[in-house]
Amino acid sequence: MNDPAKDFKSELEQAFDKAFKSAKGGDVAWNEFMKTYGIAPLGDKEKEFLLKSDMKIATGAFPIELRRVFQVILAKYAAVATAAENAAVLTLLNNYNIDVEVIRYYNRIKPFTGMSDIFKNAKSTTKNYSEGIGEARKSAHRCKSCGAPRLEEMQYDECLFCGSELFVPNN
Ligand SMILES: [Zn+2]
To answer: Which of 4, 77, 78, 111 is the most exposed place for a label (fewest CB within 10 A)?
Structure first.
């Protein structure tokens, strides 16, 4: 029997899996997969910028590309849920947090840093007040979701790395 809620979940999982199995920074198979959702890969310049940035990845497609696929899948099932008044799909949609899912993906593709992370965490708990101010200032220029540094001159509305919205519109 046709079960849109099940299809929805498996389609999201498939996208995650394809992105994860892609070569570092994307490959032909991943580009073909994105194309089936009408999505073009990042440009060479953007990819080069990301590969040189602080946001290191060990493997897989860039998180922002996976987010774009997720967005198409979400829109597709939002239409299904509305047309068929499918409560199960609506519940899944309401509980879906795209930022959380993209970060979950990022955690799978980032290089294992092992001990250095442990030391970093230990250090951050002992930082003094003035260091705290410095940190706060720095974080104003970082993506709230993934922590990617944002350059002032970059006029992106969304984080180039994870696709999270950088600016909350103040109406
Ligand atoms: Zn980000």
So the answer is: 111
If you measure from the C-alpha of residue 32 to the centroid of ligand 1, how many angstroms do you get, rounded to a whole number?
24
Nearest to 65 by CA among 94, 39, 96, 95: 39
Distance, CA 64 to ligand 1 centroid (Å)?
Answer: 8
Distance CA 27, CA 119 (A): 35
Average pLDDT, the chain: 85
Measured in whole angstroms, the distance separating CA 65 from the mean position of its chain's CA atoms is: 8
Q: Which pLDDT tens digit goes with each residue over 7-39? A: 999 999 999 999 999 999 999 999 999 999 999
Cα gap 60→106, rounded to integer Å = 9
53: CB partners within 8 A, 6+ apart: 148, 149, 161
Q: Where are the domains of the chain?
A: 4-109
Mean per-residue pLDDT, 116-131: 50
Look at residue 153 in the predicted model and tell me its pLDDT: 57
CA of 21 to the centre of ligand 1 (A): 21
Distance 164 CA to ligand 1 centre (A): 5
